[in-house]
UniProtKB/TrEMBL annotation:
Protein name per UniProt: 5-formyltetrahydrofolate cyclo-ligase
Catalytic reaction annotation: (6S)-5-formyl-5,6,7,8-tetrahydrofolate + ATP = (6R)-5,10-methenyltetrahydrofolate + ADP + phosphate
Swiss-Prot/TrEMBL cofactor(s): Mg(2+)
Protein origin, superkingdom: Bacteria
Keywords: ATP-binding, Ligase, Magnesium, Metal-binding, Nucleotide-binding
E.C. code: 6.3.3.2
C-alpha cells in the first residue's frame, strides 16, 4: 500500500475525529509528560502552536503551563495566507488572542521575535515516519518557518499516533524533525 501525504492526511484526520474528548485530553497529557524527559529545558525561546479545536489537534495548554512554570519565553505565531509566512510574537499576560478565518487562534499583535532566536519549536502534524518526516496540512507554513530557524533549533513533532514506516512523497524542502513525541514514546531522529 502506498503512503502518500494525501493518503496519510485523510487517514489521520479520520483517526483523530474518532478520538473522544477524554481520549484527546489523556493523550495530550501523556505527550506533555514525555516532554519532561527531553534535554531541552536549558533553552529559553520556545515556539508553540495553539490547537485548532475543529481539527482535534494536540492540546498544548499543558505544555504552555510547563513552559511558564519554567519561566521560558513562549512564542506564538500569526500566519499570513498570502505570503505563507508566520510572524512570531512573545506570549505575555497582555496578549490578545483571536481566531482567524481558518479558526486558528492567533495573537492580535505584540512583541515580535525573529525566527533566528527561537531555540525549540513544537510542530503540529497529522502523521510522521520513522525518518522524522512529517505530514502537515499541506500549506507549507512550517517548512518555510523552520527553514528560517538556526540549524541547531530543536524541532519536536507532537502526535497522538505512532510513526508510519515511511512517507512516500517527501520533497527536498520538507524539514525533518529532531524528535516526535507521542503519548507513549519519544522518537529521536
Amino acid at each position: 500500500m502506498s503512503n502518500t501525504k494525501k493518503e496519510l492526511r485523510l487517514k489521520y484526520k479520520t483517526l483523530r475525529k474518532q478520538l473522544s474528548e477524554n481520549e484527546r485530553e489523556e493523550m495530550s497529557l501523556g505527550i506533555s509528560n514525555q516532554l519532561l524527559q527531553l534535554d531541552i529545558w536549558d533553552k529559553n525561546y520556545f515556539h508553540i502552536f495553539l490547537p485548532i479545536e475543529e481539527y482535534q489537534e494536540v492540546d498544548t495548554e499543558l505544555i504552555l503551563h510547563l513552559l511558564s512554570g519554567k519561566d521560558k519565553e513562549i512564542l506564538i505565531s500569526k500566519s499570513n495566507f498570502e505570503t505563507r509566512e508566520m510572524t512570531h510574537y512573545l506570549l505575555t499576560d497582555n496578549t490578545k488572542i483571536k481566531k482567524n478565518q481558518y479558526n486558528i487562534p492567533e495573537p492580535v499583535d505584540g512583541i515580535e521575535v525573529p525566527s533566528k532566536k527561537i531555540e525549540v519549536v513544537f510542530v503540529p502534524l497529522l502523521a510522521f515516519d520513522k525518518k522524522g518526516h512529517r505530514v502537515g496540512y499541506g500549506k507549507g507554513f512550517y517548512d518555510k518557518f523552520l527553514s528560517e530557524c538556526q540549524v541547531e533549533t530543536i524541532k519536536i513533532g507532537l502526535s497522538f499516533f505512532e510513526a508510519e514506516e515511511i512517507i512516500d512523497d517527501v520533497h527536498e524542502g520538507d524539514m525533518q524533525l529532531d524528535y516526535c513525541v507521542t503519548p507513549n514514546k519519544i522518537y529521536h531522529f
